[in-house]
Structures are given as structure tokens and as C-alpha cells.
Write a structure and sequence with these properties.
Layout: E1 7-8, H1 19-25, H2 41-60, E2 69-72, H3 75-90, E3 97-101, H4 106-117, E4 121-125, H5 135-141, E5 146-150, H6 164-174, E6 177-181, H7 193-196, E7 200-204, E8 215-219, H8 245-283, E9 287-289, E10 300-305, H9 310-319, E11 322-323, H10 339-343, H11 348-352, E12 354-358, H12 365-386
Parallel strand pairs: 1-11, 3-4, 3-5, 5-6, 6-7
Antiparallel strand pairs: 2-8, 7-8, 9-10, 10-12
Helix pairs in contact: 1-8, 2-8, 3-4, 5-6, 8-12, 9-12
Length: 387
């Protein structure tokens, strides 16, 4: 009997490296191996490659100047730096107030909780049943001590897209900085820092077919940020350390391609997303779609199955050749129910019975149909065993 075809539906966790990005990276592992801080030819070539990547990121998100792009190791570092860098640039944490939402990635939430231990005051805004923040709640929470609002552009678990442009208008009028974690959004939906009126924006290469270990933080010109790492003069002296040239080159190529193909990919994945939702709900009873039905990422499907334990479902799906997730890949080992789903108003049982299937640029109609075919009997069997 032939081996079962494997179907990868966990693109929110990570995406495969684009061949074109790999091709762009390869010379910088071998022939073009110079340190970008060196003044000789090898160093200058590495520096040119880094600055070319910076411009590629700049253009992809609508930034005005290359200097507004600071390179990092990924989304978590960018989120940490945006929040702590803003607070420490303003002064003492105990004199600062931050506003965020209850469904942020842990890179934001844990950073805010750490700052609370230092005396910073944090307001965690609730969301509605679809996972959306009410801009009016943001405006109401702003006070004279507020130094930053941090609301993600699109949720990593349920895919709900936030009204960032509306929040941006409020923050601009109140002269409060706005940070958005756009890790899941970049490459999936249009991202323009000026249309959104954001001051800081985080992104990560491996979410749009770039390499792992590379990311960026957009910092609007004039925004003051405390140093992340002290040492050399890299990244305008704000983040010292020898640059990972191959990874930055790969990120630049990947984000350039993602921006060029964004509209076409979004349309195709939205159709596949709806096909997958319809296929699963036609085969399985008592299924809930989590997140906003339309204002969501094109490739995100998050479902809760009554009477099913999520970990058992994931293991059985993996054995059936389908890769999915119970939520954020960063918390997949946790036993507690998803903080995102609980914030949406799900019961603990519903949250524990959730499944996230996320599509990619290589996902096909056959993948979607076959995944639904394999999922249905597994759910039926797990329910039978439970009851």
C-alpha cells in the first residue's frame, strides 16, 4: 500500500522557505561571507546586501525611509523591544501606562506583565465574541500617563483582523504611540504603516516564506526607543551585534515576493478557507467557527468541536498525515485552555476542543477536501470513545 500523502495546514506556525529566498541567501554563506561592519570589499558587499533588504522591507509596509526599519531576530524580539524600548525611553516604568488587549501574543502579554512588576500600569482591554477590540474602549482607557497602545493587527489563533486604522486615529489625536504586532498580517493582508497610523510595527520572516531567526521592527521617524543591546554601532547603535546577513537577505526577498503576490494569494486562500469551513461543517456536527466570519486572515480556520479533546484530535490528525495546531505554536505544550478563546467567551471545554488549520500559498483544493475527509471520522471516533 502506498504511503499516505501528507498535508501541511499549520502555516500560521511557520511557512516553508521560498526557493527564491534560499537562492538569494546562498552566496552569503560562502563567497560573500564578510562582516558588514568591515571596511574592506567583503564587508562593503555584506553591508550593501543588508541595506538592500532594509529597503525591501520598507517598501513592503509603506515606510518612508530605510532608517525606520530595524532588524531583529523575529517577532518576539520586535514585540519586546517595541514595548520595553518605548517605556524606558519615556523614563521610569512606574510613571508609565500601557494599553493592550486580552488576546495578544504572549510576546506582548508577558512583556507587559514583566513591566508591571517594575511598577508600570497596564490596561488589558476585553474583546467581543469575534475577538475584536472596540476602538472606543481604547479611547476611554487613555490617560495622561499612557505612553503606548499595543494591539495586534491580526490574531494568531483565530485570525480576527483588528480595526487598527481606527485605533491609530485615536492614538494620533491623543498623541499616544501605537504599536501593532503584524507578524500574522504581513504578506497575508495589505499592510501600510501610514494608512494604519502606527508608530511601531513588528514582523517576522518565517511567516511569509522567509527564514527563521529574522524579523524587523518598524519605528516611525522621530519615535524614541531605548537601546535593546549595547555594544557596536549596528542598527543605528540601538541593537548591537554582528548581523545575520544570509537571513536578512532571505527576508528581504521573501517580503518583496509576498507584497507583490499578496492580493492574488489572499483571494485564492480566502476561497480555500471558505471551502474548508464548508467541507468540515458538512461532514461534522456541532462545530463552532471561532473568530470573525469575514474580518479574518485569508488562510485561518479555527474550529471548536463539542465533545472532543484538542490534543487527542491533533495527535490523531498527525497520524492521518495532516498537520494542524490547537492554537499558537508558541503555547502548544501548555495544558491550560487558550487565553484567546477564553477571552472570546468560550467555555473551557470548548477552548480545549479547538483546532487551528492554516493554509499556505502551496495549499490546494485537493488538500482542503482530503483534510476534511480525514478529519470527520477522527472526530466521530473520539466522540464515541468519550461518550
Amino acid at each position: 500500500m502506498s504511503a499516505q500523502r501528507r498535508i501541511y495546514l499549520d502555516n500560521a506556525a511557520t511557512t516553508p522557505l521560498a526557493p527564491q529566498a534560499l537562492e538569494a541567501m546562498l552566496p552569503f554563506f560562502t563567497q560573500e561571507f564578510g562582516n558588514a561592519s568591515a571596511v574592506h570589499t567583503w564587508g562593503r558587499e555584506a553591508k550593501r546586501a543588508i541595506e538592500a533588504a532594509r529597503r525591501q522591507v520598507m517598501r513592503a509596509i509603506g515606510a518612508q525611509q530605510p532608517q525606520e526599519i530595524l532588524f531583529t531576530s523575529g517577532g518576539t524580539e520586535s514585540d519586546n523591544w517595541a514595548i520595553t524600548g518605548t517605556v524606558f525611553a519615556k523614563g521610569k516604568p512606574e510613571e508609565c501606562h500601557i494599553i493592550t488587549s486580552a488576546i495578544e501574543h504572549h510576546a506582548v502579554l508577558h512583556t507587559c506583565r514583566w513591566l508591571e512588576k517594575l511598577g508600570c500600569r497596564v490596561t488589558y482591554l476585553p474583546v467581543d465574541g469575534y475577538g475584536r477590540v472596540n476602538p472606543a474602549d481604547v479611547e476611554k482607557a487613555i490617560c495622561p500617563e499612557t505612553v503606548l497602545v499595543s494591539v495586534m493587527m491580526a490574531n494568531n489563533e483565530v485570525g480576527t483582523v483588528q480595526p487598527i486604522a481606527e485605533i491609530g486615529e485615536i492614538c494620533r489625536a491623543r498623541k499616544v504611540l501605537l504599536h501593532t504586532d503584524a507578524v500574522q498580517a504581513v504578506g497575508a493582508i495589505p499592510v501600510d504603516v501610514n494608512a494604519l497610523q502606527v508608530d511601531l510595527l513588528s514582523l517576522s520572516a518565517h511567516k511569509f516564506h522567509g527564514p527563521k531567526g529574522a524579523g524587523a521592527l518598524y519605528v516611525r521617524r522621530g519615535v524614541k526607543l531605548a537601546n535593546l543591546l549595547n555594544g557596536g554601532a549596528q542598527e543605528r547603535g540601538l541593537r548591537a551585534g554582528t548581523e545575520n546577513v544570509p537571513a536578512l537577505v532571505g527576508m528581504g526577498k521573501a517580503i518583496e515576493m509576498a507584497a507583490e503576490d499578496q492580493a492574488d494569494n489572499a483571494a485564492r486562500m480566502t476561497a480555500l478557507r471558505q471551502r474548508l469551513i464548508a467541507a468540515v461543517t458538512a461532514r461534522v456536527e456541532n462545530v463552532r467557527l471561532n473568530g470573525h466570519p469575514t474580518e479574518r486572515l485569508p488562510g485561518n480556520v479555527n474550529l471548536s468541536f463539542d465533545g472532543v479533546e484538542g490534543e487527542a484530535l491533533l495527535l490523531r490528525l498527525d497520524l492521518a498525515g495532516v498537520a494542524g495546531s490547537s492554537g499558537s505554536a508558541c503555547t502548544s505544550g501548555a495544558l491550560d485552555p487558550s487565553h484567546v478563546l477564553m477571552a472570546l467567551g468560550l467555555t473551557e471545554a470548548q477552548a480545549q476542543g479547538s483546532l487551528r488549520l492554516t493554509l499556505g500559498t502551496d495549499t490546494t483544493e485537493a488538500d482542503v477536501d482530503e483534510a476534511a475527509d480525514r478529519l470527520a471520522p477522527i472526530v466521530a471516533d473520539l466522540r464515541k470513545r468519550r461518550y
